[in-house]
């Protein structure tokens, strides 16, 4: 029975996967987040004690990290009720109050025609494969060999060759009894505008089959063998079975690999996908000869919540990255974004793999950047903000970006991120004003040679904030079960040092917080050496919460350190905002803000002196810097308020 177009979409919109699955499992309340539709339970398909079966109710998909079962509500009903597809649809439709459609003869006829067109494409695929292996395909085989693909690899990817003749494929198919209208409708041949015999679309080209999500060949991409050919790459025209803006090259294998934990990568072309997949990055896809479209973005997010966009490192690649950013902005949701990894200048993924092997690509993926970084770079690169008007122009540009984000929570966090980046760009140096070029430091540390460590010199381990951040990371790595409990607080904090911040972002992205998974994620983010150096910090060795195996003590310690980091972070931001405002309009309201910020920092100082923890003792008496207080006291005195509060 053929279902009319749109029926399954309507059924999915009315069906809650959590309710369907909830009849068969018991949700793990500690690991699940009902409000976000993020649910975990012991898998109903295999025996286990720990909950590794994950349901994403918003996207309508389930996946088991143990037995790798995956699917949607229909798949779940088919598997658990032992029924066929139509019967599973009928069960869900009855529950959703949706009437099953009557049999539509036209829909059945349309389905039959699509099946015949797919058969024609599969026949063309076999023809192109024979031509590659024949004598006329020697040049094409040499090209593939030069790109590192042997005969076995060509067979795995069903690569082929279209000979340099006007009707080679057309004559082959008609000789097999394929009707002319099917050859034309499949996009394999076209008629001359002035009439005459149809001719082949692909001639003297190496050929890449394009498959739909079910793995069926529906079209082809061809690369010209003649360097003087006007079109280096050519795709099949759009047909009844092929819409290039709604498909991805290598979709089905990439979806399977991503389901097993591989990172999802979007590359630029066919050969990039093949090279990356052959090097072990099996979850790699590519758009089909055009800029990525909104439907393709939605396909990516159905496979993985945060695909990595791998583009060439030249100017064109950067422009392409920003086009993807602009397309994605209105579509962002909680837990659904993109990361960008730009190749070294002049290299594509194939070049990078040849030069450095898979490890080089892993380094590029580990250094991938979030969307907010690219937006900030575009807004500030090459600009000088040495006047109020120029800063106001930057603010207007950032507000325009925020205005394009539809999701309220995502918009709020982007606003916080822009505020933080703006703070770092314009923060003053003690009592001095910023120079507007991003070189100012909020605290001008001791001069070199005084023997005191600068606040920004985190490697020395003498900065209290650095110590606290290290403790937080170490506690999560040793007690990963605490991650879901403190996830919201951790997500609100930006660590001062880039490496530690990347480590924390990697931990927050871990789907199943277990010791091995957490450590692997951090190693990928900052490298093995950096992680070992972090965990070798001397203050960690004597911290009771890390020396023992008491999760309650670890949770208490983690809560205390997060509270102090959050308080300090908020006080610093309030201070800088007040300093910027006071330069424009020094009134009592603004000075009140300054005094409150001063009081917050003083309170933090008193807490440090009154309740010296094991962390500070391990750091040989490290204390908060006094520069903030001195600068504030001086500023308050100059505008008519006493330095004491």
Strand-helix topology:
Layout: H1 7-14, H2 17-22, E1 38-41, E2 53-56, E3 61-64, E4 70-71, H3 73-81, H4 85-96, H5 105-133, H6 138-146, H7 151-156, E5 160-162, H8 168-175, H9 180-185, E6 189-190, E7 199-200, E8 205-211, E9 217-224, E10 233-235, H10 251-259, E11 265-266, H11 270-278, E12 284-285, H12 294-303, E13 308-311, H13 315-328, E14 339-342, H14 349-366, E15 369-370, H15 371-380, H16 388-403, H17 408-426, H18 464-478, H19 483-491, H20 498-508, H21 515-526, H22 528-535, H23 538-541, H24 544-547, H25 551-584, H26 588-610, H27 614-618, H28 627-638
Parallel strand pairs: 11-12, 11-13, 13-14
Antiparallel strand pairs: 1-2, 2-3, 3-4, 5-8, 6-7, 8-9, 9-10, 14-15
Helix pairs in contact: 3-4, 11-14, 15-16, 16-17, 18-20, 18-25, 19-20, 20-21, 21-22, 25-26, 26-28
Descriptive notes:
This protein is an alpha+beta fold and 645 residues long. It has 4 domains: 7-96, DNA Primase, Chain A; 105-242, DNA primase DNAg catalytic core, N-terminal domain (Alpha-Beta Complex); 243-426, Dna Topoisomerase Vi A Subunit, Chain: A, domain 2; 458-638, no CATH class. Helices cover 52% and strands 8% of the residues. It contains 28 helices and 15 strands. A 5-stranded mixed β-sheet has the order 12-11-13-14-15, with helices on both faces. A 4-stranded antiparallel β-sheet has the order 1-2-3-4. A hairpin with a 5-residue loop joins β8 (205-211) and β9 (217-224). It is globular and about 90 Å long. The N and C termini lie far apart (79 Å). Residues 429-462, 610-625 and 639-645 have low confidence and may be disordered. Residues 262-344 form the Toprim domain. InterPro entries: DNA_primase_core_N_sf, DNA_primase_DnaG, DNA_primase_Znf_CHC2, DnaG_bac, DNAG_N, DnaG_primase, TOPRIM_DnaG_bac, TOPRIM_dom.
């Amino acid at each position: 029975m053929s279902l009319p177009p749109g029926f399954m979409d309507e059924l999915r919109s009315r069906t809650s996967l959590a309710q369907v699955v909830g009849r068969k499992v018991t949700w793990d309340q500690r690991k699940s987040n009902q409000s976000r539709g993020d649910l975990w339970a012991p898998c109903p398909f295999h025996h286990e004690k720990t909950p590794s079966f994950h349901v994403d109710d918003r996207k309508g998909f389930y996946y088991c990290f143990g037995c790798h079962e995956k699917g949607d509500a229909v798949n779940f009903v088919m598997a658990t009720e032992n029924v066929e597809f139509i019967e599973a649809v009928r069960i869900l439709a009855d529950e959703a109050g949706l009437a099953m459609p009557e049999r539509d003869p036209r829909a059945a006829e349309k389905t039959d025609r699509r099946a015949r067109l797919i058969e024609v494409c599969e026949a063309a695929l076999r023809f192109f494969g024979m031509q590659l292996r024949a004598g006329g395909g020697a040049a094409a085989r040499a090209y593939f060999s030069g790109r590192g693909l042997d005969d076995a690899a060509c067979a795995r990817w069903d690569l082929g060759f279209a000979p340099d003749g006007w009707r080679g494929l057309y004559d082959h198919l008609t000789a097999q009894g394929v009707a002319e209208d099917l050859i034309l409708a499949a996009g394999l041949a076209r008629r001359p505008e002035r009439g005459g015999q149809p001719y082949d679309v692909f001639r003297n080209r190496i050929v890449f089959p394009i498959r739909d999500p079910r793995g069926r060949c529906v079209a082809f991409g061809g690369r010209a063998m003649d360097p003087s050919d006007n079109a280096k790459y050519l795709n099949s025209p759009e047909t009844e079975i092929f819409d290039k803006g709604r498909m991805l090259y290598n979709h089905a294998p990439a979806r399977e690999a991503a389901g097993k934990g591989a990172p999802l990568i979007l590359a630029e072309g066919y050969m990039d996908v093949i090279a990356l997949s052959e090097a072990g990055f099996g979850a790699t896809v590519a758009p089909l000869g055009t800029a990525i479209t909104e439907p393709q973005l939605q396909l990516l997010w159905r496979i993985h919540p945060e695909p990595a966009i791998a583009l060439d490192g030249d100017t064109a690649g950067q422009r392409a990255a920003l086009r993807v950013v602009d397309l994605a902005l209105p579509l962002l949701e909680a837990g659904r974004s993109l990361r960008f990894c730009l190749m070294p200048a002049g290299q594509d993924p194939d070049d990078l793999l040849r030069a450095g092997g898979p490890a080089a690509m892993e380094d590029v993926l580990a250094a991938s950047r979030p969307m907010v970084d690219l937006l900030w770079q575009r807004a500030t690169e090459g600009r000088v903000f040495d006047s109020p008007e120029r800063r106001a122009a930057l603010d207007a540009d950032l507000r325009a970006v925020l205005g394009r984000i539809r999701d309220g929570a995502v918009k709020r966090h982007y606003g916080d991120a822009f505020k933080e980046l703006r703070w770092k760009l314009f923060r003053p140096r003690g009592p001095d004003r910023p120079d507007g070029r991003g070189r100012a430091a909020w605290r001008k540390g001791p001069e070199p040679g005084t023997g005191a460590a600068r606040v920004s010199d985190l490697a020395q381990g003498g900065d209290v904030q650095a110590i606290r951040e290290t403790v937080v990371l170490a506690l999560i790595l040793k007690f990963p079960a605490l991650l879901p409990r403190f996830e919201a607080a951790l997500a609100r904090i930006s660590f001062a040092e880039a490496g530690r911040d990347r480590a924390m972002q990697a931990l927050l992205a871990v789907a199943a917080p277990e010791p091995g998974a957490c450590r692997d994620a951090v190693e990928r983010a900052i490298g093995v050496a950096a992680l070992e150096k972090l965990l070798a910090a001397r203050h960690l060795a004597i911290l009771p919460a890390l020396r023992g195996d008491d999760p309650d003590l670890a949770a208490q310690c983690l809560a205390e350190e997060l509270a102090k980091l959050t308080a300090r972070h908020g006080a610093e931001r309030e201070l800088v905002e007040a300093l910027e405002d006071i330069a424009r309009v020094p009134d009592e309201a603004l000075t009140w803000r300054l005094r409150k910020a001063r009081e917050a920092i003083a309170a933090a100082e008193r807490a440090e002196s009154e309740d010296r923890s094991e962390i500070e003792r391990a750091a040989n008496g490290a204390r908060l810097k006094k520069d903030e207080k001195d600068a504030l006291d001086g500023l308050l005195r100059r505008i008519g308020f006493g330095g004491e509060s």
